Amino acid sequence: MASLMYRTAGESHGKALITLVEGMPAGVPVDQAFIDGELRRRQGGYGRGGRQKIETDRAEFLTGVRLGRTIASPVTMLIPNKDSRLDDLSATPPLHRPRPGHADLAGSVKWLTTDCRETLERASARETAARVAAGALARCLLREFGIEVFGFVRAVGQATAGVEVTEANWRTLLVAREASDVYCPDPAAEAGMRDFILAQKEAKDTAGGIVEAHVFGCPIGLGSCMTWDGRLDSRIAAAVVGIQAFKGVEFGLGFETARRPGSKVHDEIGFDPAGKDTPSLGFTRGTNNAGGLEGGMTNGRPVVVRGAMKPISTLGKPLKSIDLNTKQPSEAGWERSDVSAISAASVVMENVIAFEIARALLEKFGGDSLGEVRRNYDNYLAAARRLPL
To answer: Which of 32, 99, 119, 248 could connect to 308 by a Cys-Cys bridge, CB 3.0–4.6 Å?
Structure first.
């Protein structure tokens, strides 16, 4: 059984994006409507640009699926680009004036060219559609084990959602999020977020924000403390800051833990026999400051992750730059872009986290088929409930 992994290919204005997923066991039901729905959500949100009116993202399964279920071979998904123009020089002219905050300058020097075009085509956040497809497929597996992921926009500008997310209310908040064009379940904060994004549009500027995701239903023990790269929080952190324009990630209380004494940080442990048959095995916590992860492993509480996205680097009022050919001062180049993609970013983060949870799940309970994984999962929980053995 191969370890669960994925790769993406394709350029922003190439013919298509491609996602390759390896290690998915046989027999996982593939919910095409759900996957396409996540792709549509990634295209939406207040502040998006004209590109989203051109594309209608949908995943076409080329390999690895038969009769609506995975068959253990590599799964390949293709997402066509309607706005495909890389072979037309007039449509995709060279860019010699790198944008501050973008990959333009570093990539051009790295590949020894003064044309930023090739770098920006791959560095573009258009690539995240392929990652959303991978994560949405992984969620088809997670659902079989009662594991669900809920993400939303927590803050934009000074507007911050004041909602507390719990296992009891997240589905209600999901309904509110779906009704919001900023993907925020707090109507009062949503209005402030929209106002801030609109103000940046009028100023020919851009806006970032903070997104948050909660993972419910994880059993205790996903991940490992034995190696640094086996720690689930390190994997999730890498996946989150690997999203274009993300500059920070935190779990639970995050950076606030550095400002508090230990007695106000660590989650005290209790036990409730009534919860013994749940994935938490009856272990309780009065708080979840650790964000569901201790020692790099899930501890039975919901996994809570926040990511910070910087403002998009293509501004309507360009910042100072230089011309790479002449080295003379110039305004930064311009590419069609969004004022804010924070709503889309919440969808991307939700799905890349889901993939890492699914990878950890298969490492713990791995099998060649869904049935085998299920038996391993059930046997583990049964043994854990009998402790001490």
So the answer is: 248
